Amino acid sequence: MAFRRALKQAAAVGGVAVTTVFGLSQLTEYRRTQAQLVRVTAEAELKVPFANELPSREAQLAALQDTPEFDVLIVGGGATGAGCALDAVTRNLKTALVERSDFSSGTSSRSTKLIHGGVRYLQKAIMKLDYEQYMMVKEALHERANLLEIAPHLSAPLPIMLPVYKWWQLPYYWAGIKMYDVVAGIHCLKSSYLLSKSKALEYFPMLNKDKLVGAIVYYDGQHNDARMNLGIALTAARHGAAVANYTEVVHLLKTKNQQTGREKLCGAHCRDVLTGKEFDVRAKCVINATGPFTDSLRQMDKQETTKICQPSAGVHIVMPGYYSPDNMGLLDPATSDGRVIFFLPWEKMTIAGTTDTPTDVTAHPIPGEDDINFILREVRNYLSPDVEVRRGDVLAAWSGIRPLVTDPNSKDTQSICRNHIVSISDTGLITIAGGKWTTYRAMAQETIDAAVKFLHLPARPCRTVGLMLEGAKDWTPTLFIRLVQDYGLEEEVAQHLATAYGGKAFDVAKMAQVTGQRWPIVGKRLVSEFPYIEAEVLYAIKEYACTAIDVMARRTRLSFLNVQAADEALPRIVQIMGKELNWSQEKRTEELEAAKMFLYHEMGYRSRSERLTTSSEIHLDYQDVMRYKNRFHKFDKESKGFITTVDVQRVLQSINVYIDENALHEILNEVDLNKNGQVEFNEFLKLMSAVKKGQVSDSRLAILLKSAEATLDTRKAVTVDRSGGGL
């Protein structure tokens, strides 16, 4: 009550009295309360035309074609483009957005999954007394707090450990991390703290303890980047923006002033990638938010325009969850080549990255083997020698293209801009480029501000600070319990649905099929070891998923977590989508092939499959060869020199183990390098050599044969004495 009276007094006499009435903690609480009141009021005034149901993609395309003129047309459906659409539509501007692929199909789904201010940027700002870089960190920390608030189901604070191996570094790093807290101010997630060597090893047992003197733990945010991007786009759609994926710009539309002869943009000629239908979208303003493809649209506007994008590839890998604690990340501040490596728990797996190498702009970046091995080497440096970091443990890998830019308005056009830039061409094309995931909202606000000012658009002030995203409004930390109790879902599945969909998880649960089992009652999994269920495929279509890749990469995150599991789930995903969307058999085959190519090239399946090939060398000593020969001959009774499913099935049945014939075919096919329907002894030795070197870590055939051999060896003949005698 005393605090509330003080709050009223302070509000009555103005901001000056606040500091005299309150202490520091009360002042912080007052500011937060005032900010929340402003946000609640702002949300209450906003109209949400499609609060109950999203318009279909067909309806969105019709809106793009039938609307005489939009105020704003945004090209690009990544985080920045979707942010621009949400900012514009909530200012009461007629808003359109087109994306030639899927929402978040590019860089926005291939990040480190961190929402951060940038510890290393702050270090540079202090060391070089760089005020601009300092303000960039401060802005990012403000945006970090906002993002965690507006999508609490998709994001959360994450403690990150910085291990220290030299005594003099302890006060140096501690001062820097404490400065990070200070710069965050009231937006500081949790205060950083020091750990002794023993405590550091208690929290992160996998850590290399040799020469370790202690550690510092600080907090940043972590999120599901693709679903966050999608959430921004869906929120814009609910507020009335016409957004369409798989809609590309063929060329820009221009009008010419008869008096001055100057050309001005008035929209874009677009094409529905799925049907081939072309149409015009008229707009007063066109915004270029295409990330790495910034220069493509700029040169579409004016061919001789100088390129400003300098793309850089960042590779990440995913490893099993046992490589890191459930809730503690790791930062390597100085790798062997001066880069920073993060090692983070994510979706019950471990993500490690990133690299930073110049690259060409492409819609389909491929993770290179050199980059994967670089990350593995750096990880080995920080983990205990007891933990064998194996190449075979890389479950998925991807490359994202970071769109670094030079400022076209700067005299020194060769210098990289450390922040984002907003530029306006002679014809009125507004380009937003650079920046990072965390500051997407601030970048969008600045871009729409520029559009409003340049074209004198009748817009309200920005409303996106505190504006809750799709699914956030009805989310609570205990929502998953209601899903278990009301629908009979597995707890793990319910937790996943709650964090991926927030309040919309109930809509997914309603679509879940009955399993026919005692438990769970509903919710058939797409693949046994992940909590993704078949109902999510149907719901993904409502979220504008058009291809199998959309579902396994961005509506669920299966392909980013385990490419082999994604490959196994793929046929069922295509089957469900095919039935719902009335795909022909030819279309279903095309989807399967396209998705397999995506997994093979872009998600690291190629690197994974190339660990064991016909050209693989055998590196085994004599004792190893003889041991594996004896194991092989337990299955190859006739000494044929090869084994088939019949041989394996016979041995398994003798020890009372039964495996489905189709599953057994798949297991042998992984090792059948020349694809002749049998595993030859030479192929088996190549497999065991790859297992020994750590190139292959999860071969089902290797584990199956080893387990069967152990069982056979432990079984002994029952003697006549023990059997009770005989005749």
From TrEMBL:
Q: Which residues form a coiled coil?
A: none
Q: Which domain of life is it from?
A: Eukaryota
| GO function terms (MF aspect) | calcium ion binding; glycerol-3-phosphate dehydrogenase (quinone) activity
Give the protein's recorded name: Glycerol-3-phosphate dehydrogenase, mitochondrial
Biological-process GO terms, alphabetical = glycerol-3-phosphate metabolic process
**UniProt domain EF-hand: residue ranges:** 623-658, 659-694
UniProt xrefs under SUPFAM superfamilies:
EF-hand, FAD-linked reductases, C-terminal domain, FAD/NAD(P)-binding domain
- Nucleotide-binding in keyword set: no
Which PANTHER family did the record assign?
Answer: GLYCEROL-3-PHOSPHATE DEHYDROGENASE, GLYCEROL-3-PHOSPHATE DEHYDROGENASE, MITOCHONDRIAL
Coarse class of the protein's main subcellular location: mitochondrion
> What does this protein's UniProt record list under function?
Calcium-responsive mitochondrial glycerol-3-phosphate dehydrogenase which seems to be a key component of the pancreatic beta-cell glucose-sensing device.
Enzyme Commission number(s) from the entry: 1.1.5.3
- UniProt source species: Xiphophorus maculatus
Against InterPro entries, the record matches this protein to: DAO_C, DAO_C_sf, EF-hand-dom_pair, EF_Hand_1_Ca_BS, EF_hand_dom, FAD-dep_OxRdtase, FAD/NAD-bd_sf, G3P_DH_FAD-dep
Catalytic activity reads: a quinone + sn-glycerol 3-phosphate = dihydroxyacetone phosphate + a quinol
Compartments it resides in = Mitochondrion
Gene Ontology cellular component list: mitochondrion
